[in-house]
Design goal:
heterodimer, A: alpha+beta, 5 helices, about 60% helix, globular, B: mainly alpha, rod-shaped
């Protein structure tokens, strides 16, 4: 992976984590699996878990524990009202940036 | 999905899991709060059990090879170094993003990462405070010279007392910062050493000063 890709994805971790929870709660490993499978993202647990804990600390995510059939309790994360607000703001910002870049790129190609 | 339970893991296998979790915890120490460290480690432990459950048939117990295979699929503990250093930066600033999928740094290169961590900053501050405290030794000859200049023992006593106060307070601050940094770098070691020496010298100096005053008055 080249440095540009690394830097680009650096900026997207928080948005990706929040977006992955937009549809409802999920536990840590499920979020990692979801993001790992996304082409171009491939975030792993050492990236995702620290972000989850930070966002929970900031009150952007709420956490609840539930029994797991495989071992220790799963920690389910869910967007709070503040988290939903932050996600909406980030999505809006992302769409603006993506739209501007698309315009630039199309202009450069044509 | 198998129904492996945590308790099925033998002591030896659980020790392997604990060892990995402890290593991750140490990597995170000083970079994120204890609460966050616990949260991260809990998530990793859950993931280990999820992966074991996927790998081992439901009617079998996981073996050492199964567990080692699962651990090999995880990010190495050093990967959390770069991630949480980015995290530290992002917490201090606005919302700078985290490093994504960056390769873990070798342990040998940790020193290039650590200066950004809070623990290492405190270690550095400890060393700096200790070095600054050392300069208060200059006050002893300066006080003596001023005393000779003004023909006054009081001037010597006041300047030396000031030097002792600086030594004591600077040493205490250096030791405190070094302790808070958990001796994370060489600056912290320098700070702790000089800090302790400064405190001892200030106590010794104060006793000497008191004895001189008593001798002068008797």
């Amino acid at each position: 992976m080249n440095p540009w890709e690394t830097q680009l994805r650096k900026g997207l971790v928080e948005l990706a984590v929040l977006a992955s929870l937009a549809g409802g709660e999920a536990y840590g490993y499920a979020i990692v699996e979801r993001l790992r499978a996304m082409e171009g993202l491939r975030f792993t647990e050492s990236t995702v878990y620290p972000v989850l804990s930070r966002l929970a600390k900031e009150g952007v995510l709420s956490v609840r524990s539930a029994a797991s059939p495989t071992g220790p309790p799963r920690r389910y994360y869910r967007l709070t009202t503040e988290g939903r607000r932050r996600l909406d703001a980030m999505v809006e910002s992302w769409r603006t940036v993506a739209g501007s870049l698309s315009t630039l790129i199309e202009g450069a190609i044509s | 999905m198998s129904t492996i339970d945590m308790t099925v893991l033998s002591n030896g296998l659980q020790a392997l899991v604990d060892s990995r979790l402890d290593t991750i915890d140490r990597m995170l120490m000083g970079r994120v709060s204890r609460r966050e460290r616990l949260d991260i480690v809990r998530d990793v432990e859950t993931q280990i059990h999820e992966l074991l459950a996927q790998q081992v048939p439901s009617d079998a117990e996981p073996t050492r090879d199964d567990l080692l295979s699962v651990l090999a699929r995880l990010d190495p503990p050093e990967a959390y170094l770069s991630e949480t250093d980015e995290e530290t930066t992002s917490t201090e600033g606005s919302h700078q993003p985290l490093m994504a999928q960056s390769r873990p740094l070798p342990l040998a290169s940790r020193s290039s990462v650590q200066p950004t961590s809070q623990a290492n900053r405190r270690g550095f501050q400890s060393g700096m405070v200790a070095m600054a405290t050392l300069t208060s030794f200059l006050l002893f000859p300066i006080g003596y010279a001023l005393g000779l200049l003004f023909q006054s023992e009081i001037v010597i006593g006041v300047v030396w007392f000031l030097a002792l106060v600086i030594l004591l307070s600077g040493g205490a601050v250096a030791v405190t910062l070094a302790t808070m940094s958990r001796l994370s770098n060489k600056w912290a070691v320098v700070g702790l050493t000089i800090g302790i020496l400064s405190i001892l010298m200030s106590i010794g100096g104060a006793l000497t000063l008191i004895m001189l005053i008593i001798a002068a008055n008797s």
